[in-house]
Amino acid sequence: MKIVALVKSVPDTESKIKIAADGMSIDPQGIKYILNPYDEFAVEEGLRIKERLKDDTTVVVVSMGPERVVDVLRTALAMGADDAIHVGDPAFDGGDSQANARVLAEVIRTLSADLILGGKQGIDYDAAQTCAAIAEILGIPQALIVTELKISDDKKTVTARRRVEGGDELVEMSLPALVTCEKGLNEPRYASLPGIMKAKKKEIKKVGLSDLPLKADAVGAAGSKAKVVRYHNLPERPPVKMIAGDVATQAKELARLLREEAKVI
Amino acid sequence: MANGILVYGEVRDGSLKAITRELVGAAAQLSQAGAGPVSIGLIGEPGATTDAAVAAARALPVAKVFVARDATLGSYSTQAYAMALQAIIAASDAKVVLFGATVLGRDLSARVAARCGASLFTDCTELAWTNGTLRVKRPVYSGKVILELESTAALQMASIRPNVFAPAGAGGSADVVDVPVSISESDIRGRVKETVRTSAGKKDLTEAEIIVSGGRSLKSSENFKMLDELAEALGATVGASRAAVDAGYAPHSMQVGQTGKVVNPKLYVAVGISGAIQHLVGMRTSKVIVAINKDENAPIFQKADYGVVGDLFEFVPRLTEELKKLRASH
User: pTM, whole model, 2 decimals?
Assistant: First the structure.
């Protein structure tokens, strides 16, 4: 099988997010970039499938973005991925999810992947739309937010367990298919020291616009219909009202405030 | 030229989801600002379930209800539903399509947007119609900042977080338009085979109007029952912090936060939760936040509207009692 894991370089959860002076972007100063946590589940799942099948299965990691995405590709290689592709071109800059999906879909098409794994969302824009758009462009089935994945013995179908409101859903799909990964699917491994050494030496293939059957006006800012108006800071919450007194007084007062002041019960 | 707003009416467990009413409320605001008439699109197999959803949709304040009925549209399949919705969008000639940011809404919207060459803004918390185009606000970077966006697309889609818009009131009896679809089984290469209920009858955290969440200070899964009683008195759904889930007091399906669920209730009661950033990103858009903690320096108090410093084991049962009294007196 050929497995493709899509990975993204995103700011660490702990990073402070500061809006740039023009209000149109995020100030990159001081941000630490990491492999998107949900994409770690995708890489791990790809590796586990490969280890389980014990055949000629390969795991290729693909990341789109500026030069820094090479770091997350190296992280994935160090975990055990076989190959890495950096999809990078100034023509791709400023692309929205749909434009980026067009690019990634063409890259995946050249790889003839049987299974495409991604994270349930990037923890930067939290849009959770690129992967489903890729599945649509490729005309393959999808299962998003998956916590369990089983490949049939004949390697022709997969069954995915996904979280829905009030329970789980089991989705059966024929391969090739796309799956996005949720916490609970697996516990990602740490890269081993030999893995890290090996990853350093691995060649990372670079793919640009000229390698793909796409026109410049279909990608990047030119191909995007979602335009940033501006970023806003969160509205300030009024200061907390602390409720004093003994337990009985506090309980009575809180119940009263929720009904009479906040009017939420 | 395309005009008007189409609301996708999600049917789950045989009925039209409550979010549909909120979406119609949101669409009415866009309509008042000049975006055109509001209609609802429904998808299902021929039969009583779909008929009941059509009847429920007709009673909302909308101009038309478009419905695609086909034997292939019984259980959910992203591919089949995307084809059906594309046909409905074409029939309605809508410029804007709204979805609930539910599991199904997210699954379907991204797919249909790619299929129709539309723009899509997911998980929006504000919507406006400005200069003939859709303008939205949505939380990004785990809700640390808000991004305002507008669309230049001919067809513009958005998914909306539950509990953001006030539900629309009653309407009249909208016209029903049947939309023919031709989907063959060979078009469908993925389908829901089984649904496993884990919390039957209870509102999911992502849709709950009131949530009571517990942290590690509860000390055991047994003690979470205390929260069930408080939740019962409030008509709430129970959630948990990551620390409580990691300690085994509650299942991951109850986790609120970065690696759990992002919730948007009108009231969020945090019991024994210190307020790690991981947790805050999952509940910071709640309208009213109550924090109950024995540590007066817990960061949760900086995000709360009402704070109680005290022993939760003493306070929670008292609060439950007070709420029951309050309920009985009204």
Answer: 0.93
